[in-house]
């Protein structure tokens, strides 16, 4: 599983990707959000309009609480990236701007006559989107 992060370069439309070991649960999602905010802050961004579908790990109480607390901390400290989540209507993939990108990527990445290893798949996906490979997000044993 992978999740798309913020676009680094609006001219080239380069994406940041993170792969996930295991299922993308709420604890992984908050790690992903933290990673995205760190990257955006390094680019001197102060806010992030996050367009999401209604996957359970996007709308969970844990994730909503994390975003609320993160935004409060950004406001109190006067630095960081504020997250403005926008949830798409349920069962409306045509409104999600990432869906066509996944379709085209799949056509260009998969091996039609055999299976790819996880490493091969990650390398091909990163090459297709022109992004660097980042270590997988994983749950710590304490959380799982």
UniProtKB/TrEMBL annotation:
GO terms for molecular function: nucleic acid binding. It comes from the Bacteria. Pfam families: DDE_3. Residues 30-120 form the Tc1-like transposase DDE domain. This is Tc1-like transposase DDE domain-containing protein. It comes from Ktedonobacter racemifer DSM 44963.
